[in-house]
Amino acid sequence: MLVRGFIAAVILATHATAAMSAVWSGCAVNALIGLPLGFWTYGTGYSQASCNTKCYTEGYAFSYFGRSTIGIAGMCSCAAVSTAQPVLRNSAPSQCTGAQLTVTALSTSFQFGGCASTVSRQDSGPSATFVDFSACWSFCANYIYAIIDPDAIVFYRCYCANTPPIIVSSNICGSNYFMYSHSAAQAASGIARRSRRDEAEARQRLLAAHKDCPVGYDACLLSDDPNDDSYECLKTHSELESCGGCKYGYHSMPEPGFSRVSAVE
């Protein structure tokens, strides 16, 4: 069935990234080859919910839960990444057989929205190849949709979009596209975080260009007068009057044709 607008109303994430989520990320083949390197098995007798909680509190991003794996009930394993092997080809959305491991993401704002056999994106969002679901979600953090295609043995093709894609839905996920989305507000918060990071990096590059101040000192303007170019060198992270920054802002590099007023020592 052709589904237009993939998710008419984007599912609002019930958990912030700082809180535990529980987002289905496929089925691992079995306990031997479904688990990635660096996993840790905590034992048996767990439920899906208690396994998720255990892995999250231990600092892992993914839980691997087996209802009846190799004859052992309630086996709980944890890992920092999703399975490096594509999920079993005949796995249906959110349903893994008893012999498979249910892979659950515990730290993402994205929500699972079903699988699709074909996808037609309506905008030109970026794409890349990763070996982990969470890498795709991070890559698409500034977009509403993250589309994951397990197109190779250990690689996933990742597509980002803001416009709802046109899809043909499927109840088989292993060989098809995994569809994820989060709200426009969450996508915007990702842009804001990136913008603040870029601004901070630009400021550091600017301050690094000032050779007049010793290492560890910032060039701080002496007044808020736009015509006053004088500055002094301060340790803004230790001087109480600076409160962690320059009171009137940081001195910028002079425009061509202008000279800088001497620094006040």
TrEMBL record:
Signal in keyword set: yes
Keyword Signal: yes
Keyword entries, A-Z: Signal
InterPro entries to which the protein is assigned, alphabetical: PriA/CPL1_fungi
Lineage top rank: taxon: Eukaryota
Segment forming the signal sequence: 1-18
PANTHER family reported for this sequence: APPLE DOMAIN-CONTAINING PROTEIN, PROTEIN, PUTATIVE-RELATED
Protein name (record): Dihydroxyacetone synthase
Record organism: Apiotrichum porosum
